[in-house]
Design brief:
This protein has 321 residues and is α/β, with parallel strands linked by helices. It is 38% helix and 19% strand. Strands 5-2-1-9-10-13-14 form a seven-stranded parallel beta sheet, with helices on both faces. A three-stranded antiparallel beta sheet has the order 7-6-8. It has a two-stranded antiparallel ribbon with strand order 3-4. The protein starts with 7 loop residues before the first strand and ends with a helix.
Length: 321
């Protein structure tokens, strides 16, 4: 197989995105990989700036994440939250005792004038994360869902109401005025391989693609760059989270073909799970090359194997060029 020696831009959010990003980080040296993370989920809790997707990525790459949930820290306790509950504070969003240190430090640095990118770099350095990880933007973007229970911020919908409301639309407030972070913009210019991790295409990669000109810069017109997406939908279901439910409610087909349609203008290859191999002809008809492979990542070996497969696609593309 051809080796991949170029630069990789991975777009990610949520646990699935962090899993593939970890696999890529196990193979690629730091200078070859930039991971851009969704910040549309960011929220303020108890006066603290919480960045759930950034934190999931940070803890995963640092080897600190809870292996049972994929988010939060291993061995976490929740005594602070229990006391806050006694004081009458809303405690439906789980913030662990050690996890709180991340949010306290982030909020402190932001209050001192640092950008979210600068804060993220600082936290990564302190936790010995060597690969470049950056927020999609230093400007505030917030994901809201129009539902049968009113307009809901992402965490209200996802955590407090457990994805139960019926959605009619997803909006990204502030996206039109936001700019990609400097690291993101640089990676857009330099990437030889773009990887859309198996993240929710509406709630995780959606906010990233909503930033001005990002979708155009990721378009398929660059003959020297390959774009590979991994479908988060397997057998008509999301591996985790509300992706399939939301896609259906918003008029999309909750299949790997539906994912292909959402990425049609920016994706060259769509990696689908082996059990969806019969969908390959429909994906070909959209101008995307399908590749059926094992995509469920339960172990680190699974994550590395999927990452290696994607990099082999990139290496073959480079070699062909």
């Amino acid at each position: 197989m051809a080796d991949f020696s170029g630069k990789v831009l991975a777009l990610a959010g949520g646990v699935g995105g962090a899993k593939l990003a970890l696999g890529l980080s196990r193979i690629l040296p730091p200078h070859q990989l930039t991971i851009v993370v969704n910040t549309g989920d960011d929220e303020t809790f108890h006066g603290l700036h919480v960045s759930p997707d950034l934190d999931t990525m940070l803890y995963t790459l640092a080897g600190l994440s809870n292996p049972e949930t994929g988010w939060g820290l291993a061995g976490e306790s929740f005594r602070v939250l229990e006391m806050l509950n006694r004081y009458g504070a809303a405690t439906w969003f789980n913030l662990g005792d050690v996890d709180l240190a991340t949010h306290i430090r982030r909020t402190q640095l932001l209050g001192e004038g640092a950008t979210l990118s600068e804060v993220t770099t600082e936290l990564c350095q302190r936790l010995n994360v060597r690969h470049r990880m950056t927020p999609m933007s230093d400007d505030p973007v917030r994901t809201f869902l129009k539902t049968d229970q009113g307009d809901l911020a992402m965490q209200d919908y996802f955590v407090r109401l457990r994805c139960e409301p019926t959605a009619a639309a997803v909006t990204f407030v502030g996206a039109e005025a936001a700019r990609p972070s400097d690291e993101f913009s640089r990676a857009l210019d330099e990437a030889d391989l773009v990887v859309f991790c198996p993240s929710n295409p509406l709630l995780s990669t959606g906010p990233i693609l909503a930033l001005p000109a990002v979708r155009e810069r990721l378009g398929k017109g660059n003959p020297a760059r390959l774009s590979v997406a991994v479908s988060p939908i397997i057998g008509g279901e999301a591996v985790r989270g509300p992706a399939a439910k939301l896609m259906t409610e918003l008029g999309h087909e909750a299949t790997c073909v539906g994912v292909a349609k959402m990425y049609q203008d920016i994706c060259d290859v769509l990696v689908i799970d082996e059990q969806d191999s019969e969908s390959a002809p429909a994906i070909v008809s959209l101008g995307i090359r399908p590749l059926a492979a094992p995509t469920i990542m339960n172990t680190e070996e699974d994550k590395v194997a999927l990452a290696r497969l994607i990099l082999e696609l990139g290496g073959g593309f480079q070699h062909d060029e």
